[in-house]
Write a structure and sequence with these properties.
Layout (H helix, E strand, L loop, with lengths): L2 E2 L6 E11 L2 E8 L7 E7 L20 H14 L35 H4 L2
Antiparallel strand pairs: 1-2, 2-3, 3-4
């Protein structure tokens, strides 16, 4: 890994590094510019998955990048058959495709109820 000195912008060399956790490594760097001579520490962290591992460690929890989550959801959705109903599954006793908004059984949509049925 390459990193520049924050002061003189010359390249810095990693002299040593220590694993703090499986997801975090601390590096100790020294500026290659002898006139600067800055030594500093930097941390490298694994913060998201861009491509899931073929052999994941269950003890390691790394969040998926948003584009990976989106792709996984689209793949999952494409594997499931599309339901015959375009809404919720039918309730007990109803047929798939029946309109649950109909006011009375037997009434057809688009037709008005007789005037006698509307009066009190």
């Amino acid at each position: 890994m390459r990193m520049r000195c924050p002061h003189c912008k010359s390249w810095a060399s990693v002299r040593n590094s220590v694993e703090v956790t499986p997801l975090l490594r601390e590096m100790f760097l020294i500026c290659k510019n002898a006139a600067c001579g800055h030594t500093f520490a930097a941390a490298t962290e694994i913060n998201r998955t861009l491509s899931p591992s073929a052999t994941p460690d269950p003890a390691i929890l790394i969040p998926l990048s948003p584009h990976v989550r989106r792709r996984a959801l689209m793949d999952q959705m494409s594997r499931h058959p599309i339901s015959q109903c375009d809404r919720m599954p039918p309730a007990d006793g109803e047929e798939c495709g029946a309109d649950s908004d109909a006011t009375e059984p037997g009434e057809e949509l688009g037709k008005e109820a007789p005037a006698a049925a509307l009066s009190p």
